[in-house]
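Weekly modeling sync, notes
Attendees: AB, CL, MP (scribe)

Item 1: holo prediction request
CL wants a bound-state model with pyridoxal-5'-phosphate before deciding which constructs to order. AB pointed out that an apo prediction alone won't tell us much about the pocket. Agreed to run with the ligand included and paste results into these notes for async review.

Input as submitted:
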Amino acid sequence: MKFDYKKYIRTHLLSLTPYQSAREEFTADGREMILLDANENPFATEVNRYPDPLQLELKEQIAEWKGVGVDQLYLSNGSDEFISNVIMGCCEPGQDQIVIVPPTFGMYKVSSRTHRVGVVEVPLTDAFQLDLPAILKAVDASCKIIFIPTPNNPTANSFDLNAIKELLENFQGLVLVDEAYVEFSTNPSIIPWLEDYPNLMVSQTFSKAQGMAGARLGMAFAHSDFIRFFNRIKAPYNINTLTINAALNRLKEQDKVGEQVQLLLDERRRLEEAFGSIPFIKQCFPSDANFILIRVDDSSLRYQQLIDCGIVVRNPSKNLNCENTLRISVGLPEENNRLIDALKSLSI
Ligand SMILES: Cc1ncc(COP(=O)(O)O)c(C=O)c1O
């Protein structure tokens, strides 16, 4: 398919000469070299050398795991960094806009504000699904990216994949589908759709099911022209050696990750059942992720009472259509027992 990525990005960045480390040119063929190019301390520790700017060893393994080419994969310091990269790379400050679908993940708006990029908000329907006619009516040529997290945060449900397909076919800009919780979802990843939709970008993360939130590692999958572009504008060493090594080890433990995901899904079902017998929980929204959104009688009161019981949940009530809600992550079985006991004790 004929595709010109240049129409999606900021023109002044096309001529950017990226930072280049001298080492990249000479270490690619695997030859043993004496490294006197980067003013490092030569005494060996696990981290005395700068990391590979393109993280090729890790990318080769992730690419194989996800069924894409290395040239379709970009790694970021958490998905948060990629969100910032894509806004900075594609949106002209004071001129272009992004589109979000509230209630939605808060970083899209925060990041657009830091880049002085406008935000068009098109609310989800009452069933927390995409309102496609409203989206297509609200957007214009200034709307460069739409952010679609599925499963969504804070609502926990997944969006209808047909609606996402329709969006890809009718929205003029980039569609960034944020699959941070995909391992918990009954929907498959839409990474294979990259073949048909060059305006699609998919992001995933090591922070959720992969259990590496503290290491900060996000994965973005896109047309190779975009990946080459992001590699040119990124900070040279955005992924550190400790994170690269931790991820290489985690990739060998996918059986264990699968078991943990299954246990968390079983625990989610147990929590959902228990919530059904708590009188002040008015509604438990369907979840396709590792957290649950509930509606209670008074979210500020119940939030504080849980804090007093030593349990921190999230109160997303300020989000559109989330009045009196709490968002609760599925914890370890003992932690979930403590939560259920606390909720029962507050019901008396
Ligand atoms: C939908 C969604 N995307 C992205 C992130 C952030 O991911 P990362 O830890 O990789 O920056 C979160 C974190 O809560 C999220 O809910």
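Recorded for review: The chain has eleven helices and ten strands.
Action items: CL to compare against the apo run; MP to circulate these notes.
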